[in-house]
Amino acid sequence: MPSAKLPFFRYLLIDQMLRSKTRTFPSKEELLEACRDKFGVSSISTIEKDLNAMRLDFDAPIVYNRFKGGYEYSDKSYKFLSVNLSSQNMLALGFVESILEEFKCLPIFEEFSDAVDRLLDGLEITKTLGKNQRKLGKFIQIDKSPYYKGSELLGELIGAIAGEQPLEIKYKKFGAEHAKPVVMHPYMLKEYRNMWYVLGYVEQYERVIVFALDRIESMNILNKAYFKPEKALFNEETFFADTVGVTVSKNPPEKVLLLFSTLQGKYIEAQPIHRSQQIIENSEKGCLVELEVVINPELKMQILSYGANVEVLAPATLVEEMGKEIKKMQFIYNKSAT
After folding, report:
1. I need a labelling partner for 273 at 20 to 30 A (CA). Which of 2, 23, 95, 302 fits?
2. Which class in CATH covers the domain with range 3-73?
3. Angle between helices 6-18 and 44-58 (to 10 degrees)
4. 256 CB neighbour count, 10 Å cutoff
5. CATH classification of 151-221, choosing from 2.60.40, 2.30.30, 3.30.1490, 2.60.120?
6. Model confidence over 136-163: pLDDT tens digits?
7. The whole model's pTM is what?
8. CA torsion, points 109, 229, 236, 105, in degrees to nearest 10?
9. DSSP per residue over 127-196, as a string?
10. Which fold has domain 254-337?
């Protein structure tokens, strides 16, 4: 941790100890012991400087209680880094808290959850909303993501990406009998439809590849030089620019024309399929949409999900592929009906 940041984090620890209900009136020696364990502080003078800095820079009412032999806040309502928030500010932060609840079940977010709880406690969001407002979680309902295999790897992957550490992963493709080891230099994590993926440069194939976390059987950090993104010509802002989903192709993007029913067109306008989407025409005949994307399995599945509410007009290759898929579906349902 950069040394410039250490004082701030020591202040947070000291504040936590001063507000503790179980271990009240901490002495300088106790503050030093806690800061030594967490930050390697070895001098009592550092603690004295921290206490003075908190008083001067953050108006912390820290006083020494001679009868108790330790420090306390003379104003019990004082909160370190407290800020004045309007009711709208508090509602907005409460809304964020309710969204974060969705992720608390994942191992990687356990530490984040604790940090958010501390922040909200410091801002008195939960307390204020609890007194004056109906709890936000009662009337904001978010579709919960189920726990899935691979989510336990998120923490280690984030650490490897941030620390620029190559990995050896054993990856089992769908349909494969055994997992194969590959050396990957991880660059980015991506979520798509409640599933997580990691992408990075793979030495064996000399290109950037996307891996689904649920198919990674094992993962180890390697002690070797990291192949940086710029060497692989990787740009996180453009890598998925022409893609729906996570299947990236070497094929160039194509103009895709889709004619939606009038009603379905309203939903497509409100929630575009891709950022390249343009509404060419919107009339009684329907909503004509143009996309400029790479044609991949996710795009085809998306189009099929609209059923009879969409017709593919271009390109001709996609029209043919979708027609074949629909005939297969028709055959299955006709067979079931007989």
Report:
1. 95
2. mainly alpha
3. 80
4. 24
5. 2.30.30
6. 555 666 666 655 677 888 888 988 998 9
7. 0.67
8. -10
9. HHHHHHS--HHHH----PPPP-TTGGGHHHHHHHHHTT--EEEEE--TT-SS-EEEEEEEEEEEEETTEE
10. Alpha-Beta Plaits (3.30.70)
